[in-house]
Design a protein that fits this description.
By secondary structure, the chain is of the alpha/beta class. Helix content is 41%, strand content 16%. It has two domains: 195 residues, Periplasmic binding protein-like II (D-Maltodextrin-Binding Protein, domain 2, 3-Layer(aba) Sandwich); 92 residues, D-Maltodextrin-Binding Protein, domain 2 (3-Layer(aba) Sandwich).
């Protein structure tokens, strides 16, 4: 065998022994609304290659008012989804649905009630007996908490159509909103900031923007779940503490209705109000959840009659993938 053939044979042997490059695992991740700054950590992880670094090929699928991510998740069309609040996780347990919350994206629920300034409707207690527009989902969730705490009545309820038009035309209108968006839009239109009553300031202790997946995936491929949570955590720290421009660009591209002004306002509200990074996350890391807080929330809502007090609420979540201090700087 001449030297050229020996070199070729040696190279072939080396290649045969070399490990085959692992293909990235496909992940389809469903949002509970269209692309907004509230999802910045995920878009940051996608745009900067963080997901790729963790061996994940992530597709972010936007939600919206006519998209039911829970149904898509149960049908197997999503690997993970944003489960909007703790109620949905408890509903998994209540209805014996084999899905579970694996991480809490928001430590503070960004839901608010919004009123006009100067009309005396500037705190939750003052709204007793006043008309309040909320969605059908809210009527079955945190409205029950406000009703029990402040003595509200269902007779106060008015339909909410995800529009600010009634607010602009009615000086006594009170409606649900998101702290990261509607106040800015009201100010942009009227030149005045509305009264903002943040649900979390009322003593409501539910998590929000949770990540959910199937019990089956947790059991059969916990490494995939871990990598998705850790990569997303890294994306959030990068987004909140570094340069958010990659996420901003990706969000603006995905959602043509988003404006730079609204994008920056939402981003600053997330940071200033500690929506993602506050409380337990300071010692346990972003996505923190605790049994104590879940117990407090469950007891809070069971007292309203929404859940049976004997229900196994712990079936709706797992702490397996959080509370490890991942991403915290020493």
């Amino acid at each position: 065998m001449n030297i050229s053939l020996r070199i070729a044979a040696a190279l072939a042997a080396c290649l045969a022994l070399a490990p085959t490059a692992r293909a990235a695992d496909p992940v389809t991740f469903g949002l509970d609304w269209v692309a907004e700054p509230e999802y910045g950590g995920y878009y940051q992880a996608l745009a900067t290659g963080i997901y790729k670094k963790y061996g994940l090929d992530v597709t972010i699928q936007e939600g919206g008012p006519n998209i039911n991510n829970a149904e898509l998740l149960v049908a197997g069309r999503l690997t993970f989804d944003i489960t909007s609040n703790s109620f949905l996780a408890l509903n998994f347990a209540q209805e014996n649905i084999p899905f579970v919350a694996v991480a809490a994206g928001f430590q503070k629920d960004p839901d608010i009630l919004m009123a006009h300034p100067g009309v005396g409707e500037d705190n939750f207690a003052a709204l007793k007996g006043k008309p309040i527009a909320v969605s059908s989902d809210t009527r079955a969730s945190w409205w029950t908490y406000l009703r029990a705490k402040y003595g509200y009545s269902d007779s106060q309820l008015r339909p909410y159509g995800f529009s600010l038009a009634p607010f602009f035309t009615n000086p006594t209108d009170v409606q649900e909103a998101y702290v990261t968006s509607e106040p800015y839009l009201v100010h942009e239109q009227t030149g005045k900031w509305p009264v903002v009553m943040m649900l979390s300031d009322s003593g409501f202790d539910g998590y929000a923007s949770l990540i959910a997946t199937s019990d089956k995936l947790v059991k059969t491929n916990p490494d995939l779940v871990r990598r998705f949570i850790e990569a997303s955590t890294e994306g959030w720290y990068s987004y909140l503490n570094g340069d958010p421009t990659p996420a901003f660009n990706a969000i603006l591209k995905a959602n043509p209705d988003m404006t730079p002004g609204l994008l920056h306002y939402g981003y600053e509200q997330i940071k200033a109000r500690g929506i993602v990074d506050s409380g337990d996350t300071k010692t346990l890391g972003i996505y923190a959840m605790t049994d104590a807080r879940w117990a407090k929330f469950f007891n809070q809502m069971a007292a309203t009659g929404l859940y049976d007090k004997s229900m196994n609420y712990k079936a709706g979540y797992t702490l397996q993938f959080v509370d490890h201090g991942f991403g915290l700087t020493k």
